């Protein structure tokens, strides 16, 4: 006989410390930006010594920051993660119709990605229904330095920031044409930044990518056109596709305030 799940049974799987930590984060609002540890303990109906370890963990992780001896406010981790989520959601919603139209005009697949550390994270694809096409699923992560969109995402960093990001990353494990040293990567990204677009060939396919800019002029995402070499391997085709891609970039950037 199968056991029937009940609220009491579900409660057995709860993690009290995690539940209390999330409850603490939920206590902060526009009206209450700063809370004392005693306030948190009183609302949770636990002792201040019990709440201390939870608060300290949240401080260590960046979700809370101390503003007094026993006073706290939301930390930069909450704010940056929240804005990153909202920004990525806005980027997808704004870019979607433009990428769909770009696919329809070119009959090539189009993708949208953002940078997470050294990875290019694919957020959207406009799939071209051809027998020979490039189709990278949403959620895929690829190393930035070895892809066209990833390289465009790296152009949002200056040379020092790029060096700091890749100071502990081995590059010589990747096949050509990916750069194999940090100075080579820095030189390549400087050229990409000046050009404003990247053309990259791999596995019988070609991708052309460019960056999306926000209202501050920062590179916040990248888009591409990608297809088989048989379609894209002429200078006339590449120039035509690039012109269309850059027009879509400008339209998306304008809607994001760029």
Stretches where pLDDT falls below 50 for ≥5 residues? Answer: 1-5
Going by CATH, the homologous superfamily of the largest domain would be: GAF domain
Number of domains: 2
Mean pLDDT: 86
What does it look like?
It contains ten helices and nine strands. With 258 residues, it is α+β, with helices and mostly antiparallel strands. It has two domains: 68 residues, Orthogonal Bundle (Arc Repressor Mutant, subunit A), CATH 1.10.10; 176 residues, 2-Layer Sandwich (Beta-Lactamase), CATH 3.30.450.40. The strands form two sheets. Strands 6-5-4-9-8-7 form a six-stranded antiparallel beta sheet, sandwiched between helices. Strands 1-3-2 form a three-stranded antiparallel beta sheet. β7 and β8 form a beta hairpin. α3 packs across α4 and α5 packs across α10.
How would you concisely characterize the structure shown here?
The protein has two domains: 7-74, Winged helix-like DNA-binding domain superfamily/Winged helix DNA-binding domain (Arc Repressor Mutant, subunit A), CATH 1.10.10.10; 80-255, 2-Layer Sandwich (Beta-Lactamase). Helix content is 47%, strand content 20%.
Features:
258 residues, Arc Repressor Mutant, subunit A, 20% strand, 6-stranded antiparallel β-sheet
List the helices and strands and how they pair.
Blueprint: H1 7-11, H2 16-27, E1 35-36, H3 37-44, H4 48-60, E2 64-66, E3 71-74, H5 76-106, E4 109-116, E5 119-126, E6 141-143, H6 148-154, H7 159-165, H8 182-195, E7 198-202, E8 205-213, E9 219-228, H9 229-232, H10 235-255
Antiparallel strand pairs: 1-3, 2-3, 4-5, 4-9, 5-6, 7-8, 8-9
Helix pairs in contact: 2-4, 3-4, 5-10
């Amino acid at each position: 006989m199968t056991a029937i799940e009940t609220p009491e049974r579900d409660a057995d799987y709860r993690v009290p410390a995690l539940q209390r930590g999330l409850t603490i984060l939920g206590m902060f609002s526009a009206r209450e930006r700063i809370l004392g540890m005693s306030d948190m303990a009183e609302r949770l109906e636990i002792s201040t010594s019990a709440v201390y370890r939870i608060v300290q963990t949240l401080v260590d992780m960046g979700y809370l920051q101390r503003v007094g001896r026993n006073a706290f406010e939301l930390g930069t981790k909450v704010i940056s993660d929240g804005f990153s989520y909202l920004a990525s959601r806005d980027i997808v919603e704004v870019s979607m119709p433009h990428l769909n139209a770009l696919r329809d005009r070119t009959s090539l697949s189009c993708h949208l990605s953002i940078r997470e550390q050294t990875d290019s994270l694919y957020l959207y694809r406009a799939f071209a229904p051809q027998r020979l096409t490039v189709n990278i699923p949403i959620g895929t992560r690829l190393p930035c330095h070895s892809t066209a969109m990833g390289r465009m995402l790296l152009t949002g960093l200056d040379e020092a920031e790029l060096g700091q990001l890749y100071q502990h990353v081995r590059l010589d494990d990747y096949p050509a044409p990916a750069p194999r040293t940090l100075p080579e990567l820095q030189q390549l990204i400087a050229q990409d930044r000046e050009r404003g677009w990247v053309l990259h060939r791999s596995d019988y396919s070609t991708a052309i990518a460019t960056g999306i800019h926000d209202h501050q002029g920062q590179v916040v995402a990248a888009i591409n056109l990608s297809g088989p070499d048989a379609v894209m391997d002429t200078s006339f085709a590449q120039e035509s596709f690039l012109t269309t891609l850059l027009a879509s970039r400008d339209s998306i950037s304008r809607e994001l305030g760029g």
